[in-house]
């Protein structure tokens, strides 16, 4: 019987990621105060919607930063063998819930104003929207590269993107208000921004819940992988094949192979099959024919 465990950890520039998130949080925090105060002063629901999204950006940034720091710190507990890596996945779920809550609140407030839209000055909308676009552009540039490697950062990045669309909407509302004096421009933009955010929040939640439910990664065809392992010379059966994602960028796999051949050779070939599909963190066990505990045996 032989077992192989391939550890291949890819460590990004963690310090750079943390510093970028801190700078991004500072930029967002400064602009959030400006936008919220202006929204309350001029009674703009579109600006309030954008401020709400900015708040979720801030919360997402701090939760994401906490998750990244916890994952880097690891755990001294023998019971927590994966450390705090999953913290960022839970963070993504919380971010999605926050986005859904803000969008729902804005939709409620917008419909409350139908038929009785207050007068909102357009010039402050334009000025604040332009400032918001500049702030979001800076933060998007800071987070873009790390958003593909971390679900926590991706959640924060997605909310900044959503807020950028919100700022564009506020800018349009301001221009329409200044040029036409139409009182519902503010309300319409608020509704459109909320509706634009909703499906993206659901998508983020779905991605995180897929990981938490330990479903196989979307890019891995488990049946094809099983067939490829069956094709390894000397392998007669494949069972207990499991593939899941610990965090984005770190897919895991375990497999039991039955073989009467050279165990070392089978291990090397099986690892190559897994690595070719991005499964470099895998545990492979080779067992002789007639081994016990063969759950879900698949004859090759």
Automatic annotation (TrEMBL):
GO terms for molecular function: zinc ion transmembrane transporter activity. It holds the Pfam family Cation_efflux. Belongs to the cation diffusion facilitator (CDF) transporter (TC 2.A.4) family. SLC30A subfamily. Its main location: membrane. Residues 218-288 form the Cation efflux protein cytoplasmic domain. GO terms for cellular component: plasma membrane. Residues 22-212 form the Cation efflux protein transmembrane domain. The keyword Transport applies. The chain crosses the membrane at residues 21-42, 54-71, 92-111, 123-143, 155-176, 182-203. It comes from Mycolicibacterium diernhoferi. InterPro entries: Cation_efflux, Cation_efflux_CTD, Cation_efflux_CTD_sf, Cation_efflux_TM, Cation_efflux_TMD_sf, CDF/SLC30A. Gene3D superfamilies: Cation efflux protein transmembrane domain. This is Cation transporter. It is found in: Membrane. Keywords: Ion transport, Membrane, Transmembrane, Transmembrane helix, Transport. It is a multi-pass membrane protein.
